[in-house]
Amino acid sequence: MLEYFDARQASLKIADLEATALAKEYGTPLYLYDASIFEIKYRKLREALPPQADIFFAVKSNPSLAIVSLFRSLGAGVDLASLGELQTALKAGVLPQKIVFTGPSKTDAEIEAAISTGIFAINAESERELERIDRIAHAYHKKFPVGLRLNVGFAPKERTTVIGGTAPQKFGIDVARATEAIRLAKGLRNIELIGIHIFNASQVLEAEALLNNAENIFGTAFELSQKTNTELRYIDMGGGLGIPYTDEERELDVGTFGRGLAKILTRYLEKGLPKNLRVLVEPGRYLTAEAGVYLTRVIDLKESRGVNYLLVDGGVHHLLRPTWFPTGHPVRVANKLNQPTRQTYSIGGPLCTALDYLAKNIQLPPVEVGDLLAIFDVGAYGFTESMPYFLSHTTPAEVMVLQGQDYLIRPRLTPEEYLKSQVVPEPLKFFS
């Protein structure tokens, strides 16, 4: 936790820039991203993984055009789940052959866009989706590459179930129907089955748990390929690599994970999987979370029935995750970073809902009106996962610090700008 920030300083710095100065320039609430941390995390994982493994950044974790562009520049492909994410990837300069499309409820328009663009593969989530891909590919006179996403009966334990588990779910095809689905796919004239996709857990911090899961993934893919005489070009393991949000949690040992994955891969290549097999790893949170900081200004202080409240200008309309996860996020006073914690506070935002707490019962130095709070580890599933239109507040600006320079990568939206996208029927218009 806070591995990439120096808490010994009097005030928080993003790279070498003062957070207080950035807040003064861009206003609050404000998302800040340290580009050097994105790069550190990417290179650390890339060096740990075997050469047959390809990193496909999970755009859903943070679909910022600037962030996708950064990972493209580092060599990553992208895993995406919507037409909007596809458009973002292409605008960021990602090559179509480094794009994989996964997710339930794909529309015909999304499938057509993926096919016409010529992406690497679509991971199909159902038998009906296979038939739809085949139908749409026929119009383009293409034999389009697909993978099958499977809903399997194994999974590593998640910190909080988000994507995985072994229960009935909307993701993928039940493994009991996998053989039948593969035979269906191989019988369709306009698709080519080239991969198996299994993504069944999120926020895993134990390398051994990930490796046990990888063993099961490879075993399932190998068994199905042998049973159906299917030559696989890729096995897609999804994401699931976690980060420590609390002092009690420990950083994932990606070195151990990478070495173990290399051994598993070697063993299955010796068993008969194709020598040119690629392994797709789709991290999102692992690459982005620790690079992001959310700044919010203290507007008021109050006490209610023995609880001290800090009322701030930000809230869960910008950062929803604290309402879901009891562990929350690390919080510091950005302008009193190295001062001892002496007071217990709960942090509430401006929304008219009891859900609007960014933290509860946390220890901070004595806080005053005007102090700047920094909430860490928000580079993944931060603003992108929130509800910015509730109560019509302004949205936070987003700023990236890159090579010692701050760049505004998403400007703040105001209520006036929201109104420009709305239309009033003529009979209801008010004329002053």
Molecular structure report:
By secondary structure, this protein is an alpha/beta fold. It has two domains: 13-32 and 289-420, Lyase, Ornithine Decarboxylase, Chain A, domain 1 (Beta Barrel), CATH 2.40.37.10; 95-283, TIM Barrel. 30% of the residues lie in helices and 24% in strands. It contains twelve helices and 20 strands. Strands 3, 13, 14, 15, 16, 17, 18, 19 and 20 form a nine-stranded mixed sheet that branches. The protein has an eight-stranded parallel beta barrel with strand order 4-5-6-7-8-10-11-12, surrounded by six helices. α2 (35-48) runs parallel beside α3 (65-74), α2 (35-48) packs parallel to α9 (254-271) and α5 (108-117) packs across α6 (127-139).
